[in-house]
Write a structure and sequence with these properties.
single chain, 390 residues, alpha+beta, 2 domains, six-stranded antiparallel β-sheet, elongated
Length: 390
Amino acid sequence: MGSIDRYIFRTTLGSFALVLVSLTGVIWITQALRGIDLMTSQGQTILTFLGITGLAIPVLILIIAPIALMIAVAHTLTKLATDSEIIVMNAAGISPIRLFLPFVYASIIVFIIVAFIGAYMAPDGMRRLKRWDAEITADVLANILQPGRFAQLDANLTIRVRERQPGGLLVGIFVDDRRDPKERVSIIADHGTVLKNDSGSFLILEDGNLQRFETGKTDPALVAFSRYGFDMSKFSKQGGDVTYGIRERYLWELMAPAPDDPVYIQMPAQFRAEMHDRIMAPIYPLAFAALTFAFLGSPRTTRQSRNFSIGSAIAAVFGMRMIGFACSVMAVKNPTAILVQYLMLFFGIGISLWIIMAGVVVEPPAKLVEAINRSNARIARLVGWRPVTT
């Protein structure tokens, strides 16, 4: 690349990175706030919370990256046009298709990123998230023992916890154990924690007392303790085998699923639709960059408005993305929707390249401009606006 190409390439990729990080961060925060109860109600640490919610970031990037590239291309072209650099390049003999090359290089970088995320990173993150969630939700101690509730773990075993504190500390514990028909045990402890090791899971109670009511005896046996271990292995188990859904499958697993895969046997159409959706995901950055350049890349003077071109580029990109989403949903029942999506993408790229090579300047029709000017003048008269004279 020449110096001009490197300048445009760096500007585009820098803007893309800034927009991608900003949009992903905002959307990730809104999604992460929904799972804040993971810390408050289940006693998980902030690192666990961030780790679990962070696994969804690749999926967000997969959707946001093409939009971020479109914004970056529009920003770069607007900057070049504002500084009259596009006009100077055109006057120096640089054709629009030649000027489009550094944007193609930037689009190829985004193409590789999106392809890698769609084929491996996004499904791998979803797999880790599903395994992590299974380990947490499979643990009864972390989910059933909710503050202020009497949890019926068994037919004759009731446990209540007054509150949870940071670090997994349980405060105000009450246990009523009637599983043994020969005795009834009631335990009250000031606080306690859950301990898991190779021997099983235990509720470690501290600073409390135990009352044992034996059959045939009138007085209970009362024992005060500073530390007592209550076996809870029966009610706490690790997550078993996890069945991965379609979104948790790698691209090569979608392309060549195992014939005896129960999920594939039940939903073969969903496998096909998801596979083509992953294949087409990297093409969207190329299509969005081409469309944006087609509307904004032609040389204009600073007196010519670019608002119509910017609005048209946004509408074209938005329409293409919405049609793509609709085709992805319809592809499950109608395979023709997959073909429509491919044709839409390549048609968008083709028509954009034709506009760029032909040097077509996308501008609003003259009659539309005149109608807008007349409407603005009429509104100005109604509100009594007069130009300020000096």
